[in-house]
Design brief:
312 residues; binds 2-keto-D-gluconic acid; Rossmann fold; alpha/beta; elongated; seven-stranded parallel beta sheet; five-stranded parallel beta sheet
Length: 312
């Protein structure tokens, strides 16, 4: 049987690359020269696999006249040109739900690491400074007010995790949810003013672009903390850097940034941040499940079966 061509925008873990290569002829975008795909191979491509952080741009989509499906390894499809896909009748799938627990876990880890200054404590022990004294005291997490911006699949999982931490939970979203006892805020600035810790689990895209700006950060205040495990685009990064440098907020735990992986060097100079290289879903178990879901969606598509997790 002839293997269908699969254009990949970025690499997956080795096991997934092997599994995909047994069913498809892989065309690796990152290995192509500056001229990209040859004109002759473009019409042969019916399927494309990408990642949440990479997406696929208009130019690439427009160069593939027979593209039928984009399978995204990640839940966020904000970097995929969905408008072009919709217009062209190209199906798009993502990997929802399988990563909820891991992203929620990392948000909890970042909250604790930032508020309790765990990396600074680690550095204190390693450097030998402990003999000369203890580090400054840090604020506690339990008993605090936690605001969750975006109570979707990940946000709801996070609220469940936080309920074991004896915190009060409030949330912001488009509309109040009937299935949660937590306090609803229809205004993000009001949530930030109420919260001691604001966690962003919002989807990326136009609707949430720079939603957290100077006003929200000012409302969070000098004793307030921010954790972002969603997309860098949800935050006005210039305002965030300014607030962190001026101590207008107490600190931030950040897994996502503008211009990943070439982030603003000002972050590295701050001692009130804990930084992660977009690792929310990066566990062995979840990444395995994400790779499987990408393959299952592609298999279903080529077998003419309903897609498992369609976006469009
Ligand atoms: C991954 C993500 O970082 O799910 C998403 O939207 O951003 C992440 O799970 C990414 O897709 C893997 O590179």
């Amino acid at each position: 049987m002839i293997k269908p061509d699969l254009l990949m925008m970025g690499s997956y873990p080795d096991g997934d690359m092997e599994a995909l290569s047994s069913a498809y002829r892989l065309l690796k975008h990152w290995e192509l020269g500056p001229e990209g795909l040859g004109v002759a191979s473009r019409p042969l491509i019916r399927a494309l696999a990408t990642r949440g952080d990479l997406g696929v741009d208009t130019q690439t989509l427009e160069s593939l006249p027979n593209l039928e499906i984009i399978a995204c390894y990640g839940v966020g499809v904000d970097a995929i040109d969905l408008e072009t896909a919709r217009r062209r009748g190209i199906r798009v799938t993502n990997t929802p739900d399988v990563l909820n627990g891991d992203v929620a876990d990392l948000a909890i880890g970042l909250a604790l690491a930032t508020m309790r200054r765990i990396p600074a404590g680690d550095a204190h022990v390693r450097s030998g400074d402990w003999e000369r004294g203890n580090p400054a005291l840090a604020p506690r997490l339990h008993g605090k007010k936690v605001g969750i911006a975006g109570l979707g699949r990940i946000g709801s999982t996070l609220a469940r995790r936080f309920s074991g931490f004896d915190v009060e939970i409030g949330y912001f979203g488009r509309s109040p949810r009937k299935d949660t006892p937590h306090r609803y805020f229809d205004d993000l600035t009001a949530l930030a003013a109420w919260a001691d810790l604001l966690v962003l689990t919002l989807p990326g895209g136009n609707a949430t672009h720079k939603l957290v700006g100077a006003q929200v950060l000012q409302a969070l205040g000098p004793e307030g903390y921010l954790v972002n495990v969603s997309r860098g685009s949800t935050v006005d990064e210039a305002a965030l850097l300014q607030a962190l440098e001026a101590r207008a907020i107490a600190g931030a735990g950040l897994d996502v940034f503008w211009n990943e992986p070439r982030i603003d060097p000002r972050f590295a100079r701050l001692d009130n941040v804990v930084l992660q290289p977009h690792l929310g879903s990066a566990t062995i178990e979840t990444r395995r499940a994400m790779g499987q879901l990408v393959r299952d969606n592609l298999t279903a598509h080529f077998a003419g079966l309903p897609l498992l997790t369609p976006v469009i």
